[in-house]
Predict the 3D structure of the following.
Amino acid sequence: MAKTTETGLPKGFRGAEQGWPELRRIPHPPRRVPLLGDVLGVDRRHPVQDSTRMGRELGPVFRRRAFGKEFVFVWGARQVADLADESRFAKHVGLGVANLRPVAGDGLFTAYNHEPNWQLAHDVLAPGFSREAMEGYHGMMLSVADRLTGHWDRELAAGRPVDVPGDMTKLTLETIARTGFGHDFGSFERERPHPFVTAMVGTLTHAQRRNSVPAPLAPLLLRGPSRRDAADIAYLNRTVDALVAARLDDGGGRGGDGGGGDLLDRMLATAHPVTGERLSPENVRKQVITFLVAGHETTSGALSFALHYLSRHPDIAARARAEVDSVWGDTPEPGYEQVARLRHVRRVLDEALRLWPTAPGYAREAVVDTELAGGHPMRRGAWALVLLPLLHRDPEVWGPDAERFDPDRFEPGAVRSRPAHTFKPFGTGARACIGRQFALHEATLVLGLLLRRYDLVPDPAYRLRVTERLTLMPEGLRLRLERRTARGDGVGGAGPTAGSCDSRTRSV
Ligand code: MNH
């Protein structure tokens, strides 16, 4: 397990001082203080939005200093495309990602490129995200969505607004737990979060905090939190070990070869197609935790931002809703195929991920001595952070109205007319997101179900604020619901009848 130093940074952590021979030519914010770096006027709770503000001023390649180290940020379309060249660059396990090593170890997301468990787990688990596997998860996704609409129907009947990020997080956590491991946290039935969720949120929050405490103060400020974090991790490990043991007792782990079986079955049963090697029990534990963590917050945020924009753009919501009505008709349970056919709903999601890429960046390192487009020499091992919110809002790529929510940017013709690598919410290359199709299928399905069932009414006083906890999430977003005379639950009414609030609880 990776140790961290007293600064909270991973041991052996290198800033950009090494590896960038002409670092001095890269612009940085004007006011610097010794020791603390670029901390004047810095918003420590919102490091991504803070860097975004700085980046706009400083240009496509810039640097910030923090914890006595230099960090290089890249957001120019040309440079980001260059960093996608896998013959010269690879994933760098740095900063945000490396902070998760204590909990996720050499699991898929946090593994170093050279660790043998990355390729092994990638090859064993990739079929778990194939089309066939996804069709197998579809029914489970529907049944979790059913719990969400049950909960929303009750809130609606009680005249209460719904807590969008809270409920989307319950939904996505239950979905990955069910499809991944056959587990049910009972999130929608509980008053308080499941202790597993509390521990997971605790350790994510701690990982983020380690990035924002100035080095000299870390031992003082983080001692108590570090002890709590160790307890959280121990609890996560115990819970997962029990889950795996129960599956083995059940004689589980048989379904790995192609057909049925969830992710856990695959991990336990599948041998590598070429080498015959299997994942060790220790590594299975890391993968389970990795999927639970990587598989829910980002999707939850994407759904939440999409719902925010849909509530603010009734015209766009109406178009998406008309598509759902026409593709799904009156069917109570849309099939797998019918989700992929929701092109407009999918564009709403893409556009939400453009403005608010919920995993806001990724790091790339040079694997050979090279030069970054635009003339910045890098030695092998030098690395930089790709800052997605700025890449996704670059007026040179997205036009002068880049800040405006407009799903038509993702119509096929518009996509073709843009250069490659200008929309990267799922990362790049061999280490890009393995759960991309899973997340998009789940989120499109759920948006379709919600649009069909409810009209979304925003609180006119709400102004979008974005919280950061390694991922991005709209803060305090609440919506009021109005029940449509819905199709698909036996009513058969066509058009939206806003304001109708029928008492049936049967959900689609
Ligand atoms: Mn996901 C890697 C974004 C949903 C599991 N994910 C990544 C990376 C990004 C990312 C960016 C690359 C990080 C890096 O280069 O350091 N992921 C997302 C977003 C969503 C998402 C924006 C939802 C929206 N991810 C999911 C889901 C799962 C998942 C759902 C699991 C079911 N992601 C992963 C795993 C990796 C990853 C595992 C690491 C893959 C690898 O390195 O081999």
